[in-house]
Amino acid sequence: MSFSTLVSAAVLAGHLDDPGWRVFDCRHLLTDPEAGSRAYAAAHLPGACFLHLDRDLSGPMNGRNGRHPLPDPLLLADRLGEAGVSAETQVVAYDDAGGAFASRLWWLLRWLGHDRVAVLDGGIDRWLAEGRPLVTDLSGFVPTVLEVDLRDWVVSSEAVRRNLDEQCFCLIDARSPDRFRGENETLDPVGGHIPGARNRFFRDNLDADGCFRPAAELHREFLALLAGGEPEQVVMSCGSGVTACHNLLAMAIAGLHGARLYAGSWSEWCSDPARPLVCPMTAASAQ
Known about the structure:
Layout: E1 6-7, H1 9-13, E2 21-25, H2 35-42, E3 48-50, H3 73-82, E4 90-94, H4 102-112, E5 117-120, H5 123-129, H6 157-166, E6 170-173, H7 177-181, E7 198-199, H8 215-226, E8 234-237, H9 244-253, E9 260-261, H10 265-269, E10 277-278, E11 285-286
Parallel strand pairs: 1-5, 2-3, 2-4, 4-5, 6-7, 6-8, 8-9
Antiparallel strand pairs: 10-11
Helix pairs in contact: 4-9
């Protein structure tokens, strides 16, 4: 049996010694990029490898492609192959942020063509709440090869710009409502959102314990947000293409498939002053 969305702590605990499973620690803090690696060194799930959001799960920035550009797919596949991930491997990703960063690895692997990947529901917090162990030792794995069968799941800034006129898809922004409105922006130089975007804060996918809400609830809420649109007509965005993956995971949990990712998201969009935006200063589109 393979898992493609969520795995519980109990199920993962039963597979820690399974050679066909690989666990990845994806903890990260945007305001302190080395916090995740320090946390991993201090304690992590048994057998887990660490993947850094900036160095492993993102590509180089050039000032015009956002804060977390997509990594080179072949380089990412090589990195995962070094950690023992092959086509038959069940991958589990976790973090301490309700899946905000683990969902990035979940989406990236599926983008590469690898469907056997899931997020640990509730992350390391749930693992600890159930009294399960952490370790400090590093595990070694026999390197293998992960083949790439790249999927056409990425939308460019040019396509988003055309969509302002053509209205071919619905753009959904995963940032908090205040940042979506252009308030309290601390990560990007410009506040606001892309004209026509709808807001679905990624944390609305979680319950009070930091686990994903039931599939039926997510299904109902996303259908209401789409207002009659089809899942295939959805493009997810956020600040830099990370928490947008959380909404993509939530839609998959809800059984709503086919949405794509605007990987550059707001941080790419606002880097070009010629692109229109909506901000609280004007409450309207501005050139």
